[in-house]
Design brief:
Blueprint: H1 2-8, E1 11-16, E2 20-25, E3 29-35, E4 38-41, E5 47-50, H2 52-55, E6 65-68, E7 71-72, E8 75-76, H3 79-93, H4 98-103, E9 108-113, H5 119-131, E10 137-141, H6 142-149, E11 160-165, E12 170-176, E13 179-186, H7 191-206, E14 208-209, H8 212-222, E15 233-240, E16 246-252, H9 253-276, H10 280-289, E17 291-294, H11 303-311, E18 315-317, H12 324-333, H13 336-345
Parallel strand pairs: 1-9, 9-10, 11-17, 17-18
Antiparallel strand pairs: 1-2, 2-3, 4-5, 4-6, 7-8, 11-12, 12-13, 14-15, 15-16
């Protein structure tokens, strides 16, 4: 019976992000990329839509529908909604085969979590995954998964540094001999904080209210962390606070850079704080190897240049920064049998 279960079981890796979730299926690669958004019926927990369909509802729902992002700063903010989202992901990736249903086969999950997560938050992730239909659940720290995903030589007796900047957190880690030597988790230094800073700036300077999606569009289109060669302009639309009417205006990349400076400073501080605790031998390795940026928010223009100027180290943005953590969970899957034995032994 065990052999048949193994034949039909599926191992899944999930990058359960604040802004986006990615799912990696064994032998298939990344099979799902969806926003971490769930639309529910107001006054109940009835799920109406998950992922991209729910994201399109943000800021545009009628009174009887609520669009929720159940993850906050990389951890679960709403347990029931996170469970519903995980269930949706699992069922979409592993449609129930008649044999798997009969044998009660549950997929094994590898879930990436922030390095600064508490034991209570870890249990919440494990319980939500089990309740959503998973069998064994293994947690891997996001910076380690990201480092593996971008191809850093984490097993070597030499220092490698990863800076993973997602929607809710900035995770910094120095890794050597397959372990995290030093790490720093900044929960207010991700893409969400950047969006909020842009919204606050537009409201303060222009008395214009804009939504999360508009703020994100501004960040992606003209946002930057370091002076760029040719400054850009962008036309935006929102609601005038004073008149209460729709309004259009033009903003510049220079003012958006100024609006983002405090959030970007938190990222720089996280990197410098981690380097300050670094042993001389590992620091010497980093002089040559530098650091690698991953995560969706690492793509902010000029962030690599700013970090290089502030640290004096070579800085490289990963080829596919959005997929790094999910790819890392895929590599970890190959060690699941070993991990399972150690988990049972402990």
């Amino acid at each position: 019976m065990f052999g048949i279960k193994q034949l039909f079981s599926t191992d899944i890796g999930i990058d359960l992000g604040t802004a986006n979730s990615l799912v990696y299926a064994k032998n298939r690669g990344i099979v799902l990329r969806e926003p971490s958004v769930v639309a529910i019926q107001a006054g109940s927990k009835r799920v109406l839509a998950v992922g991209e369909e729910a994201r399109r509802m943000l800021g545009r729902t009628p009174g009887n529908i609520v669009a929720i992002r159940p993850m906050k700063s990389g951890v679960i903010a709403d347990f029931d909604i996170t469970e519903a989202m995980l269930k949706y992901f699992i069922e979409k990736v592993c449609p129930q085969h008649f044999l798997t249903k009969h044998l009660k086969i549950r997929p094994r999950l590898v879930v990436a979590v922030p390095s600064g997560i508490t034991e209570v938050e870890k249990r919440a992730v494990e319980e939500a995954a089990h309740d959503a239909g998973a069998g064994e659940v293994f947690l891997v720290e996001e910076p380690m998964a990201a480092a593996i995903g971008v191809g850093l030589p984490v097993s070597e007796p030499a220092g490698s540094m990863i800076v993973d900047i997602g929607g809710g957190t900035c995770e910094v880690a120095i890794i050597s001999l397959a372990g995290i030597v030093h790490s720093y988790s900044a929960r207010q230094a991700g893409g969400d904080a950047m969006d909020e800073a842009i919204m606050a700036h537009i409201k303060r300077v222009y008395n214009l209210m804009i939504g999360e999606r508009t703020a994100e569009e501004i960040k992606v289109t003209i946002g930057s962390a370091y002076p760029i060669g040719e400054e850009m302009k962008m036309e935006i639309k929102g609601r005038d606070i004073v008149a209460g009417l729709p309004k259009t205006l033009t903003i510049t990349s220079e003012e958006i850079r100024d609006a983002l400076k405090d959030t970007v400073a938190l990222i720089v501080d996280a990197v410098r704080s981690t380097l300050d605790r670094c042993e001389p031998e590992l620091a010497a390795d980093l002089v040559d190897r530098g650091l690698v940026l991953s995560g969706g928010s690492s793509q902010l223009r000029g962030l690599d240049k700013l970090l290089a100027a502030q640290t004096g180290l070579p800085v490289v943005v990963a080829d596919d920064p959005l997929s790094a953590v999910a790819e890392g969970t895929g590599v970890v899957m190959n060690e699941l049998d070993f991990l399972a034995k150690n988990k049972r032994a402990s």
